[in-house]
Design a protein that fits this description.
Blueprint lengths: L13 E9 L2 E6 L2 E8 L4 E3 L10 H4 L17 E4 L7 H7 L4 E5 L2 H6 L1 H10 L4 E5 L8 H13 L4 E6 L1 H13 L11 E2 L8 E6 L11 E6 L4 E6 L7 E4 L9 H20 L5 H23 L4 H21 L3 H13 L3 H15 L5 H11 L7 H18 L13 H13 L1 H4 L8 H11 L1
Parallel strand pairs: 5-13, 6-7, 6-8, 8-10, 9-12, 10-13
Antiparallel strand pairs: 1-2, 2-3, 3-4, 11-12
The structure holds nicotinamide-adenine-dinucleotide and fe (ii) ion.
Length: about 450
């Protein structure tokens, strides 16, 4: 880490910078004395612990960022269209993007609900043909993505539309790159293995959860290796994300709860992640506000379009946050739970989230305070108390949305907890984002508490 000679600080007050103790601590000498400042190399933030009141610096410095040191690489989606009824525009949008023959990817539940036919009709009104693939299963596998791509190849599709939850959208995203890259989805699981951009994609989420409509990953299960892994590449970032809250009103309460908790987990984990950036933090905090404040209403009143809109907006922002900041240990633990026990992704994430925040209390203290301030007006006496309040808030949400005891239904044995803990540690890239060191013992302790 190279520090600039002169920090462009707001420091008329600052006499001179005297010493850098290490990468994370700088001492400033003021006319009135010295203070030690913590420097956060990744985000470029400075925090001022134990500032002497005499300096009256707290307000002046709070939130100041040293722009010279600020470095991040922001990733974005080309376009997001949001609004009740905006699904009516999907045909025009595809036409404008030169799609002529669309692979429409969804699942049978959506077909039974009539959502697939409704969207197919809107698309075909524009003289565009469609091939429907509605065989996506929850927590999709490599084989499903291959089967979906095969349907697209046979139909000579030049465009992919994914409609549904993360399962359908991830299948669609994988199929879109398989239409322009040879082989099977299994060839591309990992980081940046996809050679060619895929065909153009539009994603239409019908759960307010994964944010897959804006992320650069398609998560698929490798059943042979018993691993859930992503095809991570900018080529799966959708071209257009079309978000219509009305499409989410048919979600049953339990799926609203679990997918909503997945979104909140993205928002919180991306915020505390070691990989967070000033950009991702903005998305994270707004996503926390939208999802934490409206999830309970969406579960209790499925037709409340205000709550549904807030949830869909929040889950999309949380998607942008993980695109830039990543996720932490709750996700690492939840993946093997889906592979070995079929536990829905959002159920695992949601129940694990309060425990993971607790595990990070020491290492992400300031950020957890900020999270509490985002969901509550209440001021806390101390950092410790604010963190505890936030953890209580998450626990209450898990209980009030009915997720609390769901994991107990899976009757996971002590031996299986050992296995889940081992498999969690395989996801070393995700674990590395966790602010506190996370060991196999931590995984075991948390899993024993929740299972
Ligand atoms: N790509 C990413 O960035 C990302 C992020 C997080 C999770 N994921 C992945 O997404 C998958 C989970 O997605 P999910 O949580 O959205 O669940 P899902 O897609 O599996 O859907 C859950 C259930 O809800 C039903 N459903 C969806 N929309 C509905 C609606 N409007 N009305 C009624 N029923 C509806 C589906 O038919 C399905 O049965 C997992 O595989 C997870 O790993 C991906
Ligand atoms: Fe997730």
């Amino acid at each position: 880490m190279v520090f600039p000679n002169e920090l462009d600080t707001p420091l008329e007050l600052c006499h001179k910078r005297v010493e850098i103790f290490d990468k994370c601590t700088i001492s400033f000498e003021f006319k009135t004395g010295k203070i030690l400042v913590n420097y956060h190399p990744h985000s470029g933030w400075l925090s001022f612990p134990a500032i002497d009141d005499r300096h009256r610096l707290t307000d002046r410095f709070k939130g100041k960022r040293y722009m010279k040191e600020l470095k991040f690489d922001g990733r974005m989606v080309p376009r997001i269209t949001f609004g009740c009824g905006c699904i009516q525009n999907i045909g025009d949008e595809i036409k404008a993007l030169n799609g002529t023959n669309v692979l429409l990817v969804c699942d049978t539940a959506l077909s039974v609900l009539g959502i697939t036919d409704k969207i197919k009709t809107i698309i075909e009104k524009n003289g565009i043909t469609t091939v429907v693939f509605d065989n996506t299963e929850p927590e999709p596998s490599l084989e499903t993505a291959d089967e979906c791509a095969k349907a697209g190849r046979i139909g000579q599709c030049d465009f992919v539309v994914g409609v549904g939850g993360g399962s359908s959208m991830d299948t669609a995203k994988a199929a879109a790159v398989l239409l322009t890259n040879e082989g099977s989805a299994r060839d591309y699981q990992g980081q940046n293995l996809v050679k060619n951009p895929g065909v153009t994609t539009v994603m239409v989420p019908t759960t307010a959860g994964t944010g897959s409509e804006v992320t650069g990953v398609a998560v698929l299960i490798n059943r042979e290796k018993k691993l859930k892994l992503g095809i991570n590449t900018p080529y799966v970032i959708p071209f257009l994300s079309l978000l219509d809250p009305e499409l989410t009103v048919t979600l049953p309460p339990q799926i609203t709860a679990s997918t909503g908790m997945d979104a909140l987990t993205h928002a919180v984990e991306s915020y505390i992640s070691k990989n967070s950036t000033p950009l991702s933090e903005i998305f994270s905090l707004k996503a926390v506000e939208c999802t934490a404040k409206h999830l309970k209403t969406a579960v209790e009143n499925p037709n409340d379009l205000e709550a549904r809109s807030q949830m869909l907006f929040g889950s999309c922002l949380a998607g942008l946050a993980i695109l830039n900041g990543g996720v932490c240990a709750a996700h690492a633990m939840s993946y093997p739970m889906s592979v070995f026990h079929g536990i829905p992704h959002g159920v695992g994430c949601g129940i694990l989230l309060p425990r993971v925040v607790e595990q990070n209390k020491e290492h992400a203290g300031e950020k957890i305070v900020k999270l509490w301030e985002t969901v509550s007006e209440e001021k806390s006496a101390s950092k410790e108390q604010a963190a505890d309040r936030f953890i209580d808030f998450l626990n209450d949400l898990v209980i009030s949305t009915g997720l609390n005891d769901l994991l107990k239904n899976y009757k996971i044995t002590a031996k299986e907890i050992e296995n889940l803990s081992e498999k969690t540690m395989v996801l070393s890239g995700v674990i590395a984002n966790n602010p506190a060191p996370f060991t196999i013992e931590d995984a075991k302790t948390i899993l024993e508490k929740v299972c």
